[in-house]
Design brief:
Radius of gyration: 27 Å
Strand content: 15-25%
Number of strands: 5
Number of helices: 6
Shape: elongated
Distance between the termini: 95 Å
Largest sheet: 5 strands, mixed
Strand order of the largest sheet: 1-2-3-4-5
Structural class: alpha+beta
Length: 177
C-alpha cells in the first residue's frame, strides 16, 4: 500500500488542479480584471471588394448620406448627398476626412478615392455638384488629414486643395465660403 500512496496523491492533486482550472476559466469575462489585450496587435486591414463594400462603408461614423459607391479595381468612388439638411462645412470636412482615413488607413487595396459632394433638389429631382476630391494614396502628408478635420467652418486652404485635389464649384463657394 505504501508504494501506491505517492501515485494516488499525485493523481488526486492532478484531478483537483484540473477541476479548479475548469471552474476558474468557466467564468469567462464576468470578472472585471480578466480581459486580455495584445500590446502588439495591428489594426486589421480590410481588402475591399464588391461583396463587402456596402457593409464596410455602412459602419463608418458619417452623418452625410451615402448616395452612391463604386469600387473599380483600386479606385473607390463615393457620392455624398445633401438633401434638405443644413450642414456646416465642418461636418462635411469631418465626413470626408473619415472616408479618406478609412480608405487609406484601414484598407489594403484602395489607391485612389474619388469623393463627390452632391446637393439634391427634392422638388425638381435635380442634382448639383458642390465639391469633388481626387485623393491618392501617399500623395499627401499625414498632417493634412488632421488639418482637414480641424478646419472648422473655414474655407479650404490652398494646401488642402492641392493635397486632396479638391475642386469647388460656384455653388459651394456661394453656400459655404
Amino acid at each position: 500500500m505504501r508504494r501506491w500512496t505517492p501515485i494516488i496523491a499525485a493523481f488526486i492533486v492532478t484531478l483537483t488542479t484540473v477541476f479548479a482550472m475548469a471552474v476558474l476559466t468557466s467564468h469567462g469575462n464576468t470578472w472585471s480584471g480578466s480581459k486580455a489585450y495584445s500590446a502588439f496587435a495591428d489594426k486589421k486591414l480590410v481588402d475591399l471588394t464588391e461583396n463587402n463594400l456596402v457593409d464596410e462603408l455602412s459602419r463608418l461614423p458619417i452623418s452625410v448620406r451615402l448616395a452612391k459607391v463604386n469600387l473599380n479595381q483600386s479606385i473607390l468612388s463615393v457620392d455624398l448627398k445633401i438633401g434638405d439638411e443644413s450642414y456646416q462645412p465642418s461636418v462635411l470636412y469631418l465626413n470626408m476626412a473619415e472616408l479618406i482615413r478609412f480608405s487609406f488607413e484601414r484598407t489594403s487595396n484602395v489607391s485612389q478615392l474619388l469623393i463627390r459632394l452632391v446637393a439634391e433638389d427634392k422638388w425638381v429631382g435635380t442634382k448639383y455638384l458642390l465639391l469633388a476630391s481626387d485623393v491618392r494614396r501617399g500623395e499627401w502628408p499625414p498632417s493634412a488629414l488632421d488639418d482637414l478635420e480641424n478646419l472648422g467652418n473655414h474655407a479650404l486652404t490652398d494646401e488642402l486643395k492641392h493635397y486632396f485635389r479638391f475642386t469647388v464649384t460656384s455653388l459651394w463657394r456661394n453656400r459655404f465660403e
